[in-house]
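User: I'll paste a sequence; please echo it back and then give the predicted structure.

Assistant: Echoing your sequence first, then the prediction.
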Amino acid sequence: MKIRAKIFLVVLPLIILPLCISQAASYSAAVRGIDRAAREFLDFKIAELQTYAENQWSLLVENGYAGRSDMVEAARIAVETYARGIILNDTEIIFAVDGAGDLVMKTRDLEILPEETGDLLAILENEDTGLLQARIGGKERIFRAFWFTPFGWNIILSEERDSFYRDADVITFLTIITAACASAAAVLLLAFFSRFLTSPLARIVKVMNRMISSGDLSERVEVEYRDETGELAHTFNRMTRELERAWAEIKRYAFQAVLAGKKEQRIRGIFQKYVPRNVIEEFFSSPDPNMLRGKNATLAILFSDIRGFTSISEDYANSPEHLVESLNRYFSGQVDIIMNRNGIVDKYIGDAIMAFWGAPVQQSDDAQQAVCAALEMIDALDGFNETQRRFGLKEFHIGVGINYGLATVGNIGSERKMDYTVIGDNVNLASRMEGLTKTYHAELLITQSLYEKLRELLSANGDDGNLKALNFRLLDTVAVKGKTQGVRIYAVKRNLAPNEKQAWDIHNQAMDYYYRRQFREAAEQFRDAAALLPGDFNARGLFNRCKTYLTSPPPVEWNGVEVMQSK
């Protein structure tokens, strides 16, 4: 709010409020005077009329005519005639009503409406001796009344309210006009003086706006008065001088900051091609040289490989540019999926991709994100291969293996070349899972540790649609090359067809029989699963394995582990 407006808000009430109070007091005094005059006028007349009526009745009583109806009627007529004689104007009416409210006497035409009769009788019954007011004959009237017992009349002397208060209305109108004129004069004077008082401030504001729009801090304001506004102008000029010096320093630092920012962007752009973006962001937000030191973390580790890439490469021997183009398009789509699922692409190993979740920042859903990314990578091949077919190029098919467990993550290498990566047995196991996809004719294999983590997440987040859509099929327990301890491996899919869902359930039940050495029951279940999924490698293979064990049972120490002799 501007200062001029504030002056108006403060000063105007100080002028107008006393004026309104004085005018209201004048109006109130005038109304009270009119009320007093009206009451005295009506009291005088009603007293005269009451005296006359009593005299008429006294004459009847003294002469012994009080019992004669004709003489009583003559007295009533005399009272009515007297009432007509004391009326001074056309708005005044004297009338009488009996106890039931019926009109029995009137000095001129008058009709009391039915809805008015009750209100009038209620007022009369209160026996108020003051000035009374009621609606009579459709108009508001001021009246005085008295009860005359000999006639059984309520005799009422009334006058239209507007006749009494016409002068008060004139006073009200004049009061409003006076207040309006005084207020207008006060507004004009205030406008003049407030403009005079605030014009130096307005000039300072104009100079400030010009300085802001132009960036020129060399402007100064004129010191016009030796008062507070003059002191303000002088202080403003001192401030602008200091700002001008500070602005020069700011521009120098800003130029240096822009150069540093561009340098940082160039560094980011270069290194994001080699180092995961999450690592770069965390390093720049907290550039601690020890931040990326090796540490143990629970990770979801993914390996993906193109099936038969050697033979595919041979077909491109005469057009290597097409091979590079296909690989770049393939990697672009696969990497986007991994990064959109918050994963870090560790490296490319020929045609293989290595990625992990859980470092440098660990999330509660790393395991779920890794499996969802793998399924989306497999689904994305449909669109990729459609493009390959359109250009007459070889289709790609992949196998994906994922493990979940403890691994070492950090910068590994030498001072001249370092790599932010993960190492450890669980990394090797993830790589073996990818290799086993060929053995088990599966697109995606996960380890038991990852399966158990997903079941844990499903138990904690039962309403998660992505988790509920996952289906698991236990394929085997294997000891990868170089290991003696077995690990259960699972195939994972989403949105199974009804017959496939039924086959997977039967297969999982058969695995229970299998590990309990109930090979006959297991063989029957695997046979049923194979019937639902004709050509299914795993159901048929396990059926044949159970038939072999029925004729040549495994040793007593057998625990269901299949030892792999190759990677």
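The CA atoms of residues 128 and 145 lie 9 Å apart. The two ends are 80 Å apart (CA to CA).
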